[in-house]
Design a protein that fits this description.
homodimer; 275 residues; alpha+beta; D-amino Acid Aminotransferase, Chain A, domain 2; 2 domains; ten-stranded mixed sheet; six-stranded antiparallel sheet
Chain lengths: 275, 275
Amino acid sequence: MLAYFNHQFIEVEKVALPITDLSIQRGYGVFDFLRTVHLKPLFIDDYFNRFFNSAKSLQLNPPHDKAALKAIIFELINKNNVPDYGIKIILTGGCSTDGYTLNAAPNLIITQQQIQPISQAIFDSGVKVITQQHQRELPHIKSINYLMGVYLQQKIKEQQASEVLYYKDSIVTELSRANIFMVTYDNKIVTPSTNILHGITRKKVLKLANKNYTVEERELDIIEFENAAEVFMTSTTKRILPINQVDDIIIGEGKAGPITTLLFEQLIKLEKQTI
Amino acid sequence: MLAYFNHQFIEVEKVALPITDLSIQRGYGVFDFLRTVHLKPLFIDDYFNRFFNSAKSLQLNPPHDKAALKAIIFELINKNNVPDYGIKIILTGGCSTDGYTLNAAPNLIITQQQIQPISQAIFDSGVKVITQQHQRELPHIKSINYLMGVYLQQKIKEQQASEVLYYKDSIVTELSRANIFMVTYDNKIVTPSTNILHGITRKKVLKLANKNYTVEERELDIIEFENAAEVFMTSTTKRILPINQVDDIIIGEGKAGPITTLLFEQLIKLEKQTI
């Protein structure tokens, strides 16, 4: 499998970063992650907009503009020739002479990686999530900082959960790698919109939901889950994944709900129309 | 200059990490930083205790125990033969098959780097710091996450400041890479003790201060700086550095104060006694 690293295509196993890079020294860098469907990158303009915005916010200049980066990604997809894979674009803080000062060109790494599909059984039953008081730093930027998420892996596993949902003072924001949605018993779709990373899948689901439902982008209190009909998460790799339990709260019927399922079907349809 | 990387001594320019390492993928890792004085590592047991605690907290198993790691560091110091240098020990999350799951042995990197000494003129005048509402994630762990600190570099420079002091709801915690101390007009030494990284220099200064002054480890409100006699920061590289201004507040006489200077002299003396 080839990767793209600083102006060349190279076997992924051979790509290594000098240890003076600020990702290693200070956890400083941005990334984005998109999927290919039948060798075509899905919603690439949305991902590119976010990636270039993240880079700019962290004062990192990508070595290529959008058009050139797109051409590189198409070339990588063609060279590797693996359908329905993930594409990860990392832009690090670059090599720093003193291990702290941002003073060099960023390093760009593009890799492809397999995506574990969600089985029908998992979708139907839904998954459990646990909660954690936490606010991601600079949440609107897709930085590589996942200190809390990786740190909590063991706890998530111990509690037989799939993900962790962050909240602050009882207000829910997002999961460690996904956005959160709630469906009320009067068929309203609720999702937080502040202090979060704005997911591309979240954006697509909101667009679909707006066609048939009342959508509320607003603060969501953790206590509202007690009276929720359905809850689900959205992410690039998971698309839409039903949540059947938040800590000790069983959501609705404790399985994938009808509106979640409908939105999932509509999302798959949208993907097919786009590609 | 040699580095130590996964069981061998190697030219530092040749050390590179596979991009699947969780430091690059997710900003996940711990480190510590100590100084040598005349080719001897200063307060190494204190630094080792903190490093091994940080590693344990992030579920990372160092490849060597304390005795073996100490022997490696002494060998590195002897091989490089540069007096009065810094020693950085980084332990990363290791290579992860999916770029997220913590499932491999950590990578250990030990490097030496030059320390820019604080000039007498800078010490005498003190430096300006700016403030920022922020709470470091998992503050007691010396993780590599400096997203906020690196992000704020440009702002610090623009404001002609040297460092940034974090606070939350008006309660001061620490600077991005140093601890904070205040001296009151009735000669009390005040420093925060919660939601911070416990600096080794902070510990030594507290011990020295306790001999001659009343020391208060307690919450410190940002407004108290308006009536502070002296303010200073402590860190491994800076030892003790007077602060003459916090945002728009001029501290005391706007220069290095007598108690700060006395503590600095006592710290230098302690270093000489230790080595």
